[in-house]
Amino acid sequence: MKIERVVVLSILGSIAVLAVAMFISSQLSAQAQPPKRGGAKITKSVIIGEASPGKTSFELPVYGKAEAYNRIELYAEVTGVLQSTNPAFLEGNRFTQGQTLLRIEDSEAKAALMSQRSNYINTLTQVLPDLKLDYADIFQEWQAYLANIEVDKATPAPPTVENAQAKIFLTSRGVFAAYHNLKSTEERLSKYHVRAPFNGVVTQSSIRPGTLVRAGQPLGVFIDPTSFEVEVSISLRYLDFLNEGNEVTLTSPDIEGEWKGSIIRINKGVDATSQTVKAYIGVKANNLREGMYLNGTLQGVELDDVSKVSRRFIIDNNHIWTVNPTDSTLVKKEIEIIEYTDQDALIRGLDQGDWFVNQVAPGAFQGMKVNVTQPEA
């Protein structure tokens, strides 16, 4: 009897425990169920804007470094000791076009040129008697040519010879070969004296007077400090709006001032990594410096079918809250971001007359009922 009673009590206890467990589970489940949002209930008021997409002028921001448009890196083409000049070839010194930049000691080269020119004169002197006998028609012209040659001045070009036999004769006597060798030596002598190709300033000097200069040695950098170009990268999506002559306004983050420039050329190649093209902005200014970083705004870029909204209203990178006018509920609409400006975003995806939430809307959710407020005029 006792055993049967124990069994009955055990069964009843198990049933009681199971019932309590089921009751507790149902209570917890009821507490975890979130309260349903009443779709018909107005939860907040929002200010709306009415979309009117159209053509929008856009100032495209650009950024780049100023480089002198006229810039030459000087290298020695001959060997010799650098001579003093006035002014010296030092950083910051200015030179006018044609003024001596560098002078390398050339006495040995001059002596070699004098000797070669004398040999040329001697060659001509030896052929003149034969010209007088065999080619009398060109003798007077060549005699006058010989008389005009001076040992310390550049050698003039020899007369043109139309007579084929006379040309063969002069060639066989080495006249033309001697002349061209002489001109080569004259050209080499000119490399000892480097003149400024334009008005400019020295920005880098690698040598000092009295030092030995060797052929191929870098000497310095000479630039025109009034004409610059700025290399900028432009996204491919703006390529259709990019034209030579587009005006650009440039500013510096470090110094005051504003400079006007224009696009002077556009690279036809595309950077495969960034999918951009290089454009070059030309600008003339006396107060710019090579190496300065400049910010710019490219004017004249027009975008079609674009709406402008505050960038603060963009959610999840490419969505915006709109309002369904039939039931005043919020709709999360996907849009395309064309470009950001300092305060706004230029977007596509809104149709004419669409209502969009023209304010920050914390706590907003899809289907939320709102009270629409038109913005104050």
UniProtKB/TrEMBL annotation:
Pfam family, one: BSH_RND
Residue ranges constituting the Multidrug resistance protein MdtA-like barrel-sandwich hybrid domain according to the UniProt record: 72-221
GO MF annotation list: efflux transmembrane transporter activity
InterPro entries: MdtA-like_BSH (IPR058625), RND_pump_MFP (IPR006143)
One Gene Ontology cellular component annotation held by this UniProt entry: efflux pump complex
Domain of life, per lineage: Bacteria
Family: Belongs to the membrane fusion protein (MFP) (TC 8.A.1) family.
Classification via PANTHER family: HLYD FAMILY OF SECRETION PROTEINS, MULTIDRUG RESISTANCE PROTEIN MDTA
Protein's name according to its UniProt entry: Efflux RND transporter periplasmic adaptor subunit
Lineage: Bacteria, Pseudomonadati, Bacteroidota, Flavobacteriia, Flavobacteriales
